[in-house]
From TrEMBL:
Family named by the database record: Belongs to the peptidase S9A family.
Signal sequence bounds: 1-18
One GO cellular component term noted in the UniProt record for this chain: cytosol
This protein's record includes keyword Signal: yes
Enzyme Commission (EC) number: 3.4.21.26
GO biological process: proteolysis
InterPro entries per record: AB_hydrolase_fold, Pept_S9_AS, Pept_S9A_N, Peptidase_S9_cat, Peptidase_S9A, Prolyl_oligopep/macrocyclase
Domain (Peptidase S9A N-terminal): residue spans on this chain: 46-447
Protein name: prolyl oligopeptidase
Keyword tags: Hydrolase, Protease, Serine protease, Signal
Amino acid sequence: MRKTTVFLLAGGLTAVSACTSSQTDTTATGMTTETTATTEQALNYPDTKKVDHIDDYFGTKVADPYRWQEEHDEELDEWIAQQNEVTQGYLSSIDFRDEIKNRLTEIWNYPKYGAPFKEGGKYYFFKNDGLQNQSVLYVQESLEAEPKVFFDPNKLSDDGTVALTALQFSKDGKYLAYGTSSGGSDWNTYHVMETATGKKLDDQLEWVKFSGPSWSGNGFFYSRYDAPTEGNKLANKNEYHKVYYHKVGTPQSQDQLVYEDKQNALRNFYGQTTDDERFLILNVSEGASGANALYFKDLKDPKSTIKPIVDNFESEYNVVDNFGDQLLVMTNKNAPRYRLVMIDPKKPQEQNWKVIVPESENVLQGVSAVGGRIIATYMKDATSQVVVFDQSGKQLNAVELPTLGTVSGFNGKQSDKEVFFTFTSFTYPPTIYRYDVPNNKVTQFRKTEVNVDTDAFETKQVFYTSKDGTKVPMFIVHKKGLKLDGTNPTYLYAYGGFNISMTPSFSIANMLWLENGGVYAMPNLRGGGEYGEDWHKAGMTPNKQNVFDDFIAAAEYLIDQKYTSSEKLAVAGGSNGGLLVGAFMTQRPELAKVALPAVGVMDMLRFHKFTIGWAWVPEYGSSEDEAQFKNLYTFSPLHNIKEGVKYPATLVKTADHDDRVVPAHSFKFISELQDKGAPGNPYLIRVDVRAGHGAGKPTSLVIQEYADTYAFIYENMGVNPYQQNQ
């Protein structure tokens, strides 16, 4: 399949990386206790207007006093400024915040490389020197040649808030189609560059969203919406996705409409071409739960029209590539842990499918067709395994990996004899390997060097019992020799949804937390994809409460096993994970000291009314269905804040340009929390300006966010990580 590098997940929610922190080691635990927490009484929250608005859901009256915060206007801007002033005043009063930021900046400043990929006979790779806001794309004639800067996204804006979001080279390597996004928005603008000269052409395509450029001949396919006609372009509901073909050198007004569906406003169409540009494949989705329909067009046949291969939304289908007239497809149809089948698109009936690689006990996570081989990445208990097959499905060998961790990459063409992949784990910085496909030989290509002693830490995987008896895995990372005395500051981070798997990965920010004696814990909750579609469905509507129960049980396990206590526990999550934290803190407010819901879905009754929110209905349910409304109402964080309850110290994080999970979710949640929550803990919101859901955020803003987050955690745990250095 023609590979498009896309930096946004189309249509769904993304897992936002955990904000943790750590700094130089000072004692055996790296932390000393000092009661310095600023009390909630000292905070002067802004006066927040209420309106008299009540909705009737099947006879249940639900007040929505902060409905006005859904409309972005000058009044809301003033409220945001007032909230940020209070929050920044609180954070700036924390003595050690600057020390945290300085240490983060110090350890962040190391070269970060992406795996090389080959286009037009040349090698390309991304590199960040250390503190650059955006990574730079380099090119080299051979692996031994001197790399040269090919494209520097840092020159797109002075403050680093314009990011590269997608790119794909034409088959001959003559052109590069790439997307940019401003302020973290999902809206993309596509451009074209001439690779030989680096000249940016006049081509400019607007209102692109949830797409990638896919080349065919002297142009490419892409998907877009009509330009918004009224209201807030960052909140308007996205409807009637369309597929176009753009010919290089022509204005967007002349682009050919390839496919639209006038009867189904809420369908998304993601077009990709096979490696040989023989087929156009349309992945058709009605929601972000993973199930999709599959259409195709034979581009070599002038009379060919777009026809269905699968025309329902019962299972998931992903075309790996074509072998001649046949399509190699990864699917969970009758295989919850996925399998590989060969489908003749002209005879697509299931009885005609040929099984190439059957379902196994491990989850098939990804497949590449490279060098005459099928390279399959599996997941066993949330860690990677790689197996190589021939094109008939005969198992040839396994790819040796250094330890338990996560693999990404293996992106190449069928004609390639080499391919690169990246391996990482919690304490194993991303390391790039070269894989000689015909000879099954792995060699280290580039090792990442960091200014932290990663050998000082250990990772273990435990299996704890959730409320209904289900065994749930959890990774726990900490210093070697940690004392289990219940006093260790612990950061519990999870996601639990949309079939997204949480696997081991390296975070330099986590190193700050760990080197100061903190514990980092990441459970693999139901709703994710760690054990296939059955595990996912166990956390979807009407089973969403299972996800929250799994998270609560993880916290209880860490406390029961003396890793920490409620007074030293912080819970965090972003996006769907923000919902997770919101449900946790409203259901068990006494269980954690700090709560960090980021860009979260907090209003479960209205999420489907904004931008791409309608796509999450298969995952959550809809308040427009009576039974689903009753279920949503039981856990919607906004609607379960109780008067007079002391909630954990809360730092809500969002951004004014988030058009994935619109910031009104966070605005309404913090307004309710400040109004009803009992005094004793701070309830604050941190609103990034000119930032979005998380993708493309400049390094400078990321470091500041981590510094603020860690400072907030330590302050409310009564811990000064640098007291002995003062």
